[in-house]
Amino acid sequence: ILWGTNAGARKYETAEELPDDMAQLIVRLMTVQADTEFASIQQHRPWLDRAPTLEDRWIESRIVADEARHGLQACRILRDFGDRGQKLIDELLTKREGEHKLDAFNLPFERWSDVGAFTCFVDRVGVYQLRAFQECSYGPLARAMPLMLSEEQLHLNFGYNVLRRMAQHGPAYAGSKEEAQEAVRKWYPRALDMFGHSNSETSRKAINFGLKRWTNEEARERYIREVTPLVAAMGLELPAPEFDRRVL
Fold it and tell me: Taking residues 154-179, what's their average pLDDT?
């Protein structure tokens, strides 16, 4: 274990050897993780045959396949927790748009700019969450991270390029710079909310257990530092970090 209260000890490799409160936290974290993956499939699905170019449609299909695999990976971890985990999996597979835990995953993609901004901003938060689990104290979770992270990078690059092309080429590609800017203002606050409450006790417990590397606020600040120059390079503007926020 590389950090936390038990730094230097052997990693936990089975659900049975976990302390109860740590097991409960992993179940909670993996339930949210799986829920976001399956919700994202529902959001992307209408655009599989509506994306503006053949390449865009191909990448959309890859994103949907990636999200399904990531959801399956989270469910495999949940399944190790017996009947409790299986019950949560069954509930996850029945959820529909509007029933998901995080606000960003209950909003439909009404325009192509929504697809671009979501994959650029919201999926990037997902990458921060996965990075926080890298080399964590629970072996099965730590080993799932490298492939998930490599696949998520495709999503970020895709979203960035969609917004950049809209901002620079407008109707010659799809939409307009104004639509791209509107999408930034819509999805950036939802992305910042996804990190959770700044003073979250759950976040601190996850660090103490060696599960996550950063507090919510530390991860959010890293994220803001990363996306600020990216958006400027597109010729677009970020709203203030407190704009339209619902989780502070």
Answer: 94
